[in-house]
Design a protein that fits this description.
Blueprint: E1 2-4, E2 9-11, E3 17-20, E4 33-34, E5 40-41, E6 48-51, H1 57-66, E7 71-73, E8 82-83
Parallel strand pairs: 1-8, 6-7
Antiparallel strand pairs: 1-2, 2-3, 4-5, 5-6
């Protein structure tokens, strides 16, 4: 996957937009309550935050299809993420 940190948009490797990421609460990953499935729960919005570190583009697209309000955590140093300023 590719991530543009300026626009805060997550894309597939071939440039298809997956999701715009913006948290109005600016919560930090380590401040979130851990769930059984290695994800986290936000105390502000009561949403599950999905860690993208082990997910593929296809899996992320399917998650967004199921729930377009889903939240993702993307680390800038993840092995499966390329930082881009394009797209």
């Amino acid at each position: 996957m590719r991530y543009n940190p300026i626009k805060q948009i997550l894309y597939t490797n071939n440039g298809l937009k997956i999701k715009e990421l913006n948290c109005p609460e600016l919560v930090k990953w380590n401040d979130l309550k851990q769930t059984e499935d290695k994800n986290r729960m936000c105390n502000h919005c009561q949403k599950s935050i999905i860690d993208t570190e082990s997910l593929t583009d296809f899996e992320l697209l399917n998650l967004v299809k199921q729930d377009d309000n889903i939240c993702f955590k993307v680390g800038l140093n993840q092995n499966n993420v390329t930082i881009t300023m394009n797209t």
